[in-house]
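S2.1 Query sequence (Alpha/beta hydrolase)
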Amino acid sequence: MNTLQQLIGENGFWLQQSEHAVLLVHGLTGTPAEMKHYGKQIARKGLSVVCPVLAGHCASVQELSRTRWQAWFTSIETVFLEMRKHYKSVFVSGLSMGALIALLVAAKHGKDVAGVVLLSATFVYDGWNIPLFKQRFLLPLVLYSPLRYVMQWEETAPYGIKCERTRAMVAAVLENKDARTSEKIGYFKTPATVIYQSVKLIRAARKQLPQVTCPVLIVHSTEDDMASLKNAYLVEKEIASKHVETFYIGDTYHVVTLDKRKDDIARRSAEFCLSVINA
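Output structure tokens follow.
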């Protein structure tokens, strides 16, 4: 499996357990670190876990700005295809924009995908921490003008995290202003060009929802600060799968893999995968 190890990348991780595996997709501007605890909990349930680095990530903001959404997708699809050579079944679980990439993999590869777990799937940035003016007026103005080449958005507290202890750790890292930390925790300043690519990814993923037929688990916080429950309802309504389960959970914000209910979410995700395998 040397090829798979190479594809995962230096900052990715691989937890070998059984002939059934889960491919994890971290969020846009994030890193595999945000999926590490989630992955470990799933592995403890007996499932192998692979989490690669999205194309353009774990490097510099400049490199990220040069990538396109198709490259993000291809970097995950390539790992998926390699995993299919070694595992009896492969599930795909993604966080935020990673969830949309998981949907695209499922739409394209059909029955080869055992199932999908969507964590905080984001089609619209409409959470309670996103000002309405930014949603409707400022963001479109920037994205569809030359301003997108010079502007960036800086994420502010609560950083998608309700747990005060975890949020304080993120704030402390940001205060250090060490560029090397981007390899571990990701970027909290997103170039408008990257957001522009995410909009294209959103359009592509929504268009493919009717092509997703594998079992799906939708996990979404009732308190999501970046993407409201309407995003989850949209998937429920437009997806073609006849096996759709939902897990709507409180006491957590957008980054559910790091927040207060992370263990409950990992446990529910593993149970879903195991139930599909044993069906």
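Residues 145-150, 178-183 have pLDDT under 50 and may be disordered. Strands lie at 13-15, 20-25, 48-51, 89-95, 115-119, 152-154, 189-191, 216-221, 244-249.
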